[in-house]
Amino acid sequence: MANREEIVKAVVNALTIEIEASGRHVHLTKEAVEALFGPGHRLTEVRPLSQPGQFVSAERVDVVGPKGTFANVAVLGPERKENQVEVSRTDAVTLGLKPPVRQSGDLRDSCPVTLRANGRELKLANGVIIAQRHIHFTPADAAKYGVVDGQQVGLKCLTGRPAVLMDTVARVSDKFATYIHLDYDEANACGWVKGDRGRLV
Amino acid sequence: MANREEIVKAVVNALTIEIEASGRHVHLTKEAVEALFGPGHRLTEVRPLSQPGQFVSAERVDVVGPKGTFANVAVLGPERKENQVEVSRTDAVTLGLKPPVRQSGDLRDSCPVTLRANGRELKLANGVIIAQRHIHFTPADAAKYGVVDGQQVGLKCLTGRPAVLMDTVARVSDKFATYIHLDYDEANACGWVKGDRGRLV
Predict the structure, then answer these.
(1) Rounded to 5 degrees, what are φ and ψ at B101?
(2) Nearest to B163 among A166, A183, A184 (CB)
(3) What ipTM was predicted for this assembly?
(4) Which residues does residue A76 pair with via DSSP β-bridges, in sequence order?
(5) Model-level pTM?
């Protein structure tokens, strides 16, 4: 017989989604990886992420803006079709940039920036965005919650400083696992700690 | 005859409250001012704040935590009965501190920190907090909105990344002007820009 605590936890988990906080990070093309780390170089996995196939790589880059630099920023793998630098708005102020809030992959009006590693430098003509808060859904979970890809939902963060974040975009793919992704401005504004969960409102 | 735009603006302003974002800052006692800036020194006003009698001073201090330092942090005047250092949670991570979220003046479990200025150093046994999001109300505005001092309200931020921030505390005093105060984690999570307003929900 299941005990009561286990049942309560299973019900809560069925009604809510885990929140993860994304720190600043970089996605690189194969060409960019070679430009920064040398010919033939490929990203090396050191830790898997919650999204299937995605990983934190051993490679790190300095992100250099007109007013400030972040050293040793994580590069997430695998390599992508476009270079993309995701920062919080607080980070953007430090860099001296005013990037738009965009879904991953949407680089309209994104900002230029310089990447450095190992004495090599790569100037990106664009690519810096503030990632719009979003929820990755498996198709099954999207159906369960009644949301479709691209839909904007309200997200109640069941956190230490609770808040409802409007304009959270649902992204649905059979390549995804179901997780909420906030940046650290949002996570800290909500008092998020690892394991906290949210629900759609 | 008033024109339509003016009337609309007046109605919106009557139903909403201006949001201000507070950067990291320090409040000092007279004794702390003298310890850091010399015997007999008093804080010098350079710019008034929205709250009557409060001001940004010419004096700046370095805030030194176990993991990081912020140089030239604003000291707000006038002098207070207790030293208090208000930071965002992002700032707290940089400093290497885990301060509690507290109302101004409530220093239970607040963190120790070191202040430096002009080659002088002052170690505070406590005083670092993350200021709880709050709304200053005049007694007349509190009555209009039906809130009492200390009440927690939901705050809808009518901002670029709209959000409802729960646990926003109402503070009522005849010494206040009516303004919403967020820290920069909250302001950036909401996409706040100067002039944005919020309403109680």
Answers:
(1) -85, 120
(2) A166
(3) 0.91
(4) A27, A56
(5) 0.94
